[in-house]
Amino acid sequence: MQGEVKDELGDTLEKVRAALKDPGTSPKDKAGLHRVLTQMASTLRTIQDSGTTPEEKAQLTTIVAGMTEALRGALDPETPEEDKKSYKRIGWLMVDAMKGLEAADMPPETRALTLAHLGSASAGLTALQSPQSRPEKPQDQVRIRKVLEENFASVKSLQSPDSKQRNRAKGKLNRLHGSLTDPKHRQFVEELKRLKAPAACLTSVENRTREAGWTDGSLWGVKDQSCADTVSAGAADASSAWSPLFRCLEQKAFSQCTGTVPKE
Fold first, then answer.
1. Is 131 helix (H, G, I), strand (E, B) or coil?
2. Which is deepest, 161, 220, 241, 254, by most CB within 10 Å?
3. Buried b (16+ CB within 10 A) or exposed e, 198-213
4. How far, in Å, are 117, 166, 171, 198 from residue 158 at the CA level?
5. 215-239 tens-digit pLDDT
6. Is the pLDDT of residue 1 over 70?
7. Averaged over 46-69, what is the pLDDT?
């Protein structure tokens, strides 16, 4: 496991242990935190198992990092109460999805989908918490966390005994997975390239789109500092159909700008 992930995990686990000892922590939260600790310990054992493939170790490490961020958000005294509830829900959803992976009768396809989508959503959660990539506007932070929570819920639903619920979840996650090839997203990327966006900007847009989809993830990605000059250039180019979007991105929270994406 990467040193940075290990350090953050160690710090967070200390806070979890303190919360479990705190008489002010509700029995429900203590039960949830205990479940997360138990699952993380099981996942760490799998990562360290010599029989685990390198690809799966990488996926599981990303998921552990996501669990760590969910716990940090839930336990941070500066986190608003409603946000804490969201982080807790995400943590509990992750445990449920991970617990299902341990079932011997899980179909290989479901296991692969669960790992892939948990990994993507976990990477998004880590990016949401990172000072380098966290959205500047609070309402954008709330929007992305809601999107990620919905994605985690869909991953859990892949294991539902209800076939309709499974199929709905699979459809949603397949659409998310296909965001990078969405025609409108590809047009957006071509516009960024026309504006000579630097490689770091294009990478930011790709990563956030993979994690949170089109349009939320793409607009989150283009708000990265590496895209600032590109957004300014796009806003100034009144001849482009994308100009209203870039002007909006300069002035408002990106979650308010989806209506300015060109219709054609």
1. coil
2. 220
3. eeebbebbbbbbbbbb
4. 10, 5, 10, 38
5. 999 999 999 999 999 999 999 999 9
6. no
7. 93
Q: Name residues whose C-beta falls within 8 Å of residue 215's C-beta, 6 or more positions apart in sequence.
A: 184, 185, 258, 261
- CB-CB contact of 211 with 126 (8 Å): no
Specify the amino acid at residue 33: L
Residue 54 has a CB neighbour count (10 Å cut-off) of 7
CB within 8 Å of 261: residues ≥ 6 apart: 184, 188, 215, 245
Tokens (6 digits) for 95 = 């445990």
- What's the token pair of residue 50? 């010599």
pLDDT score for 110: 87
Name the DSSP class of 180: G
Q: What is the pLDDT of residue 4?
A: 63
Reading the block at residue 235, the tokens are 């806003």
Looking at residue 48, its amino acid is: Q
Predicted pLDDT of residue 3? 58
Average pLDDT, the chain: 92
Please give the Cα distance from 66 to 105 (Å, whole number). Answer: 26
Q: Which two tokens stand for residue 146?
A: 């809601």
44-to-48, 65, 167 alpha-carbon distances in Å: 6, 11, 30
